[in-house]
Protein: isochorismate synthase
Organism: Amycolatopsis coloradensis
Amino acid sequence: MTTSTAPATPADLAARYERGDFLLATARHALLASGVAATATDTDPARLSRALPGLFTGSGAPIAVGVLPFDTSEGTSTPGHLVLPRTVRRASSDRAAVPPRTALVRPVQVTPVPEPEAHLAAVRAAVSALSDRDLRKVVLARALDLDFAEAVPVADVVRNLANGNPRHTTYAARLPGGRTLVGATPELLLSRTGGSVLSRPHAGSMPRSADPAIDKAKGEALLASEKDHLEHAVVVESVVEILRPFCRVLDVRGPELVSTPAIWHLSTTVTGELVDQDVTALDLAAALHPTPAVCGTPTAAARSLVRELEPFDRAYYAGAVGWVDAAGDGEWAVGIRCAEIADTSMRLYAGGGIVPASDPRTELDETSAKFRTLLAAMGLEI
Ligand SMILES: C=C(O[C@H]1C=CC=C(C(=O)O)[C@@H]1O)C(=O)O
């Protein structure tokens, strides 16, 4: 195992990413992991975590990187997947910088899954199910399949994501079976640095506008929206409730208005001090996941409704992407604004929180805006 200290900027690392590597990068810090010293694959994140000390010792790698799927409940078929890499490069910088952009070929076919009309029907069904089944919130997603005449240039997509989303976390992770998950997420599930934990739940959205005055008004409308504050509060309550037993102090600040290039969001910052230093970043991420930002409340009933209403398996969309080291420190991002790439095709995912006051058309438009993160990286407007 080598940990490179050669000077590099986060932009250099994003530019050096190659298909098969693991990347977690903002314009100010980045981690690039390459090669495979060992892997661990398990549907139970707790078992993955318990296996880690032995894997660290056996492989000599002091860090594990990887993904958790959306569905981590008993009986799920999509496993969490960790890689103990051979090489890890890290970079941080006071000056934000991004790798250059590359022009990409256009897809030969674009297929929404389901069709927009069917998503509208699913949102209506979800709103009814909320009261019938006593749910406070459920997150419903749709997908967009892009087919190309040639292999998708994964590394170029990743560089374009980093170029277009410098304030957010661009990620790429190899999945079991050789596919690649790529995305640029604004949402931090959990980081642990020594005794300090940090979570930045996001929920409540409003598509942005190219017109500055309209854009500003949209942000203000989100900040004033009772429906979005409710959607957001459900997530913060869950994060706080789950972190509280692990932390001796917990500080909650927010919600505040934040933005990606495509969307306004409500975001809250939760910080805490760990009681027990043996609890790792992966343990905490597994305890929090799936938050109501990607699933709903109560979790099990919301997950059942997601399975009933979405015509696809989410796999790693709305999962978690990150790393944990032998000391227990680590960072796990929420796996949204992403696509799964398999050779000549890619599936984009976008979801939104549904509460009793949700309007189906607004929800459809919100998912269209969320697709823009990946579409912009592909140089597409659809
Ligand atoms: C589930 C997604 O976004 C979540 C994160 C931020 C805002 C959200 C919302 O307003 O619905 C979602 O909870 C997604 O982008 O696919």
